[in-house]
Amino acid sequence: MASRDYFERQERPSYVPTPDSLSYDEGAFKDIEKSLPIEKCTAIPTLQESTPIDDTPDGGLHAWLVLFGAMCIAFTTSGYMSAWGVFQAYYEHSILQDSSPSTIAWIGSIQQSFLYIPTLIFSRLLDMGYFRTMLTSASVVFIVATFLIAQCHVYWQFLLCQGLLTGIAAGVFSGPVIAILSQWFRKRRGLALGLYAAGASLGGTVLPITAKALIPTIGFPWTIRVIALIIMFGLALGNLTIKQRRSSSLVKGSLFDFSPMRSHAFLVYCFAAFFVYLGYYSFTTYVAALAINIGVSTSFSFYLVSICNACSGVSRITSGLTADRTGAMNLMIPFVTLSVVVYCVWPFARAEVSLVIISVLYGVSIGPFASLFSSPVLDLGEKDQLGRRIGILMSMVGIAMLVGAPITGAVDKSRGPIAMGLYAGTMMLFGAILMMIVRHMKVKSKPSYWSKI
Q: What is the pTM of this model?
């Protein structure tokens, strides 16, 4: 029996504690445990949280083709509407000479305002994936409506075809196209928006010169048909090249969503753009007509709109390049302020040379805002709300464009050109002040007050 106990003790592993040695081993283990760095022993390794990858191309064949298509669309829609000053002057002295300038201005104001007012709906439809259907349908309506202008003879016909139909059709393009450009460009966003806006300036330069050259030779109806053919060619190129990125998220929900307006900075910026646009189109709308009223020849006065749009085009491209380094808001505020000065000086220009200088200065000063006013909105909220923010902004801008030029015309008729210039300049000054407030709200999160915003 003793030998059996002996062999069992020999077979038992030496590292298994026995009841007799338990108290000793427990104390030893406690001493070892106290000597070890507990925090390092108990730390459990975890996987790092994945961060979203920005896959915006910012270049490449497809991205540049999309930008080219956007420029073609801007040439034929916004560019055509930027040429309204030529039609305003022509209608005042020919087809609609029995109507007041303020009444005629409603045609251009409705056209230009509907370029932006419906974007609240159309940008939301972009988020829901209906861009291609909207693009094709709007192109057909825009072309047909432009051809129908050649058949118009009375005021309500021009208001319907040139005001409502072309305006609503153009509104399908403006907001969604800007949102699509932001899907393809991020670091070069300022350059892309500058080139896109330059397409509008190019159209606003070429189309008035075309109208000026053709109306005396082939008449107004055939001039409109030639312009319609140019528009058809430009929209065809746009339809073939512009497309929405497949990787962009499609957002479900109701058609009207005003949740982005909960952002105070975004809301203030919308009102800033609203007041700037109250005075924005007053110059290009009335510069040709007022030049004729002070004795400038009709043939020369038509070129003032083209001069202004050409200078604006150069300014839009350079401001797009500059904004990628300085920030859109930092560039827009001083140039909008310069536009205020131009409006205050404009009524005192009485000679052709002074009118040309004023047209050049206004084109240069308004270019940065025209190309970049939507850029800050892209950073004032979530990415999946981009279409909604652009839609809200442009709808408010469209309301300002609807009433801006007619109010300016009414002020001119009742108080004279000096009061008209002061009114338009004051509206733009108030918009610049609101932009400064938005900049102050955003700069709080930046390392320096002069940071890129």
A: 0.74
